[in-house]
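Exercise 7b. Backbone tokens:
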């Protein structure tokens, strides 16, 4: 499956649709070339590995007590460092990120995840290496 975003639920955005079409086309081109016997050299790619889901701050009644900080909103896949603004309480207090490493949040403030108690997902950037790849078809 391919998921391209972010975009609000029930909204069709031309820019996101265009990105999705390009990704699917590249995937299909790869499959065709692989099936035709093309050989691919070793390569390395940066990817984002999910670390954990992060919930909104809540009170004893399980009610959300802070919202995503404006500086974090719409910053999916951007680095979040220790001390950066994370949440903003309804009283205007900034709750900073407290972590021992840089993370890359995604699915920030997605409406579909409120009921799942997920403010965002913390990811880490890692590198994956692939060896030489070729089809066994000659």
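Sequence design result:
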């Amino acid at each position: 499956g391919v998921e391209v975003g972010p975009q609000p639920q029930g909204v069709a955005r031309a820019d996101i649709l265009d990105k999705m079409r390009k990704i699917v086309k590249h995937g299909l081109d790869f499959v065709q070339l692989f099936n035709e016997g093309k050989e691919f050299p070793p390569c390395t790619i940066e990817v984002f590995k999910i670390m954990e889901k992060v919930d909104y701050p809540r009170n004893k009644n399980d009610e959300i007590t802070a919202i995503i900080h404006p500086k974090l909103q719409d910053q999916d896949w951007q680095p979040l460092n220790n001390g950066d603004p994370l949440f903003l309480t309804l009283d205007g207090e900034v709750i900073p990120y407290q972590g021992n490493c840089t993370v890359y949040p995604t699915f920030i403030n997605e409406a579909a995840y409120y009921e799942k108690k997920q403010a965002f997902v913390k990811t880490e950037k890692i590198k994956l290496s692939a060896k030489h790849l070729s089809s066994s078809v000659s």
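Instructor comment: The chain is about 15% helix and 25% strand. The first helix runs from residue 14 to 35.
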